[in-house]
Amino acid sequence: MLMSRTLTSLVRTVPRSTKSRAAAVTQPLFHISQNKDEQQRQHSTQVPDFSKYKKHSSGEASRTFSYMMIGTTGLLTAASAQATVSDFLANMSASADVLALAKAEVDLNSIPEGKNVTIKWRGKPVFIRHRTTAEIADANQVNVQELRDPQTDAERVKEPEWLVMLGVCTHLGCVPIGEAGDYGGWYCPCHGSHYDISGRIRKGPAPLNLEIPEYAINDSLLIIG
Ligand code: FES
């Protein structure tokens, strides 16, 4: 009996002491964990103080400054674009020596009737023929319909006594010889093309008449180009 009372008291006391010890151990740990959670929650929700970085000037001043910067950038860009375009146009425009070569002037009084003169214009030969009355009549009596490149003489001259044309064979670009060939005009020895006294192709492989350049005659001055 005594023995069983003793066991019962042991059984009762042991859990009581174990519970109290567990409570003594776990209660502070729970507090620590709770404090940490609280600290983390506070830390994550706390907004830093940015007041010392805050701008103290008014919004109006900022807007004015922005407008000024945009305006200045636009002006600089426009000035730069204008300078670039000006330089480009200056480079693209013809220089004085090129413009001088663009036109050629010939005093027609210096060319006797029945004679040829060849000048160089834009790197190409130009034939100028002071035709005789017989040559003009010869050029006009041709049946244009029979020509490979049909053109009347009147279509090829501004004044009948002056024939002005490029001295470049329309076959492969050789320079024909004057006062030669079967038609009393020009002959290209490269492949045997014959041009008449109006510079029209009459025989040989050349497909077209000799080309007439842009020109004008002012009194006795011939201006080519
Ligand atoms: S280049 Fe003149 S005939 Fe061929």
TrEMBL record:
Coiled coil: none annotated. It is a single-pass membrane protein. Keywords: 2Fe-2S, Disulfide bond, Electron transport, Iron, Iron-sulfur, Membrane, Metal-binding, Mitochondrion, Respiratory chain, Transmembrane, Transmembrane helix, Transport. The keyword Transport applies. GO terms for cellular component: mitochondrial inner membrane. It catalyses: a quinol + 2 Fe(III)-[cytochrome c](out) = a quinone + 2 Fe(II)-[cytochrome c](out) + 2 H(+)(out). Residues 129-224 form the Rieske domain. Binds 1 [2Fe-2S] cluster per subunit. It is found in: Membrane; Mitochondrion inner membrane. Residues 33-55 are annotated as: Disordered. Its main location: membrane. InterPro entries: bc1_Rieske_TM_sf, Rieske_2Fe-2S, Rieske_2Fe-2S_sf, Rieske_Fe-S_prot, Rieske_Fe-S_prot_C, Rieske_TM, Ubiquinol_cyt_c_Rdtase_Fe-S-su. Its cofactor is [2Fe-2S] cluster. It holds the Pfam family UCR_TM. Gene3D superfamilies: Rieske [2Fe-2S] iron-sulphur domain, Ubiquinol cytochrome reductase, transmembrane domain. Transmembrane segments: none annotated. GO terms for molecular function: 2 iron, 2 sulfur cluster binding; metal ion binding; quinol-cytochrome-c reductase activity. The Rieske protein is a high potential 2Fe-2S protein. Belongs to the Rieske iron-sulfur protein family. This is Cytochrome b-c1 complex subunit Rieske, mitochondrial. It comes from Hesseltinella vesiculosa.
